[in-house]
Records
---
Amino acid sequence: MSWQGKILRVNLTSGEVTPEPLNMEWANDYIGERGLGTKYLWENMDPKADPMGPDNVLIFATGPLTGTSASTSGRYAVITKGPLTGAIACSNSGGKFGAELKYAGFDLLLVEGRSEKPVYLLIEGDEISLASADKIWGKTVWETDEWIKKQHHNPMLKIATIGIAGERGVRYAAVVNDLHRAAGRSGVGTVMGAKNLKAIAVRGTGGVRVKDPQRFMQVTDEMKNLLAKETGGLTKYGTNAMMDTMQEFGGLPTNNFQEVQFDGYDKIDAKAMLKTDDTGHTNLLTNKACFGCTIACGRIAHIRKDHFTIQNRKEYWHASGGLEYETAFAFGPVVGVDDIDACTFAGYLMNEHGMDPISFGVTLAAAMELYEMGVITTDDTDGVELNFGNAEALTVMAEKTGKQEGFGEILGMGSKLMCEKYGHPELSMTVKGQEFAGYDSRALQGMGLGYATGNRGACHLKHDTFEVDMDDQTGEGKAEPCKTSQDWTAAVDSSGLCMFTMGAWGAPEFAAQLDADSEGDWTAERLMESGERIWNLERMFNLAAGLTRADDTLPERLLKDPAPSGTAKGRVNELDRMLPEYYDLRGWNEAGEPTEDTLGRLGLS
Amino acid sequence: MQVKVRVTGHLIDLCPVDEVELPEGASVADAVAALGIPPEQVGLVSVDGQAVSKARRDSTLLADGNEMVVMAPLTGG
């Protein structure tokens, strides 16, 4: 079986680290990673706890397929109560850290309490300890990674760490692993910082055992071939290949969602990344794969050395993580910037300081709108002219936010609290306090429903309604695919594999791999039921935390201001039409609470 | 008749042209076929800025000078 059968409980208050057997009953019901982490969270904390306090629990969870030879098997998730939303937070990452944790013998790390002084967790062979982080507190992600490897004379350590942003309370701080992969969303790094936990460094040499090795090799080989036929575009262009589609469609949020198309899109899209300029510089150097991945959608880029961002800063004259669709959106259209080098540099800063680019960009966009309205001035912004389109403002504010200096402290609050502070909550493009990704829900109606009902707030990765949204720009028939894809995505997220395979693999393909890997008769039906159970348990956590139906909504801009252009010109999001149908399909009452029948059917009573 | 064409995303590798010659009475589906793009790789087609759903590709006829955009499917990112 590909569960290791063991978790590690880390009590930061007492300093104790205690291996425990994995609860296999829970693994059978919740699979792993997102689902299993949610179950452990539910059973180990009060959902009403302060997200920044010692009673919050922080979980790093792998899936049964993590670390196997299945394609895209490098995934792990961080699950906690989020500081942006007060709701459950679940943020997923690739790279190599997840597989390494599995090879160290653990399915899941459960971190509770709060350390009096900064520490990092070291898991190196049989040695498990909490060590002083005094010498790396205040250091960036990149400096921390280097220091820990040198300190332990072990370049094979895989490190997940927070940067300065997480230490200093930026509400959307990320956990960054392997230098530039991140559990980026929902402020999971903020919680890590509040616990005085700087990093987790892991070296594992144990490997994994699958249930039926011969069948597993056969089925995963077949799946890799299938994947190769369907994902060539991601390999060559990365996710930023979507930029020109969103532009033509008219769903590309621009200038804080005031517009849905952006004139400068072709200066920062996937083709622009591949273009060689008149000095011979090409933004994209190569692509990169996470552990075990045969897609390799990751981008490795570099910045022109004479660009204003780095011309006097040689420390940035190196290749690093490049633009993906969401970073290109968050540093591009939503703030009106079309400078590819500035956008790339902002991406570097997110990884270096450990921040979610989506939340940062959308928060900056709201600040720019406040500035252009005259609500804030250069007296507030440290003298920086915060107009839409100002590339220098983007990079200066990214750095100020990462280091929590000047106006960066305000931007670090996130869009919701910042807009409330200045008396304009309507400018905050958020659901439950979390900022939108790069899809305008006037054009993509099902996306809007998925945003509104998202358990971690606005999120584009917890459902998949793209196909039906593109084909029809009304709210008709969107509730069912939204609900079904939410359940399905919860199952995929819990398997240990990447959701970017979903275009090639459906439920039978995932079930075939999981069944060859793990004990139990895994079928497509069982996976779907597990996904629905996971979604409902997340919902129960949120209801217990105090969230209500009123939180399942969208900003008025998307409900009342028609899309000004594009294929959905004149439309608003039809949430009022979709939400009751969605609740009904879910088996929830009018208050958005699962009924007793629903809870009983899913074993959640 | 001549129809102007733009494609998005990875479809540029399948269809590196900016216009297509079609017989009078050709539909959107005919145009996609003439461009050599497999229909399952098309997320949406728009004609002069108006969306044409999958169900209407056969019945939506093109006219000389139309501007057609063939969009790749979205996949999340």
Note: The mean pLDDT of chain B is 95.
---
Amino acid sequence: MIMRRGPVQIFSVLGLLGVGVYYLILAFSPQDYTLPSAEYYVSDYANVLSSASMDFYLTKSTEVFERTKGTNVGGLQIVVATFPITSEDQIEDEYNKTTLFRKWQIGENDMGLLIAYFYENDTLGIPSLVNTSVEIGYRLNSYLTAGAMGQILDQDLTAGADEETAQAHVYSDVLAHVLPDAYGIDVTPFDEEGYLDYLIHYDGPAYGASKPLSKLEYAFSMGGFWDQFGIPAIILGVVFFGDAFVLGKGAGGSSGGGGVFRWKH
Amino acid sequence: MKHAIILTSGGVVLVAGLVFGIIVLTGYNSIVKADEATNGNYAQVQNDLKARHDKIGELLDTLKGQISQETAIYSAITVVRGSYASADASSDAEETGAFNTLLAVVEDNQPTFLSQNGFIILMDEISEAENKLVVSRRDYNESVRVYNASIRLFPTNMVAGMFGFTSAKLYWAVSQSDTEMPVISFPSLSSSASS
């Protein structure tokens, strides 16, 4: 008895083949740290942040964007990322902060901020902070100048019980500087004791080292692609790309080189 | 047979016309987009140049004001220190008087001088302004490259010719004045204090 294959069966086989090829490409494509992780608001590529800190940034940034999006000023998105480097040249060439910011499209109406920490292994192989670079979105720059951001870094990075606390302090002081002025939202000052207590007693989700999205995931992640093609593209993405349906791009923000950096030598 | 040939020819002409129309439409739109991008990026460079000029000027004025004020404090401390040093150590009243004057000058003026912070802020702002200019010039040159390529590459060059987009745009060249370091001068503390 001869079985005749109908068009539905052919499409099913082709679809499965497509999904197989997609995951094969995913498995063998090299990691590209210039792309955000699936968490988007925090990408710990240097593997230096605790789960507590990652959860802190993720929760805060999500909450801040939810509260500020759709306002006249535009939704504020703050992204924290750590990068492992082997040479200081990589900071300007490979991980140029303006290029990263534009690729990650941080902030609604250019109200975005990227705080990037660069780590290089010391002689014992322990990651050591060598540079902090901050890129400020076009519009956010009028609420947070380079001078003000530099002062926050100078005050907070050298203080604090440890590096993680100091970095959380930087993040909180940025919020305290921007939210009241731009949105009229009051912010309680950073409580170092409270944060240390939070780090010790944290029992939330555990995060490992961040993995960047693949190029395919990035291309099909939320952002430009979905905005352009709407609901049919979302359905297509969910059906064919499954986990690719993540936040891989921000609210379309851009920047033009505003911001500061600090070396730790 | 003749009917079929006419129908086929008509179809070919229709398809060719459709293809030509799509090429003209997309070509025209892409050239206009590239043209607008160069205009926008040119304006951004001008904007950054103006912002650099205004912002650095404002900061310099503020900083110079702080320095002048601090120079006056240094002078006052120098004078009082002189009178304290020359005071008769054996005379309690004279010694105490000179000491209190010195203390008053220092306390009143809060010797946490602002200009140190001001210099760091100025450095950050200058660094940012320069970085912004580098980025905006790079953006402009990139948009010029896209525009110039679009009016020379086939098939958009035909569309460019049809709608008058013929002249290539110039890249942002660094002029002689751009390569010169701006002169920033402050009142000298030592000369003012000693006078």
Note: The radius of gyration of chain B is 35 Å.
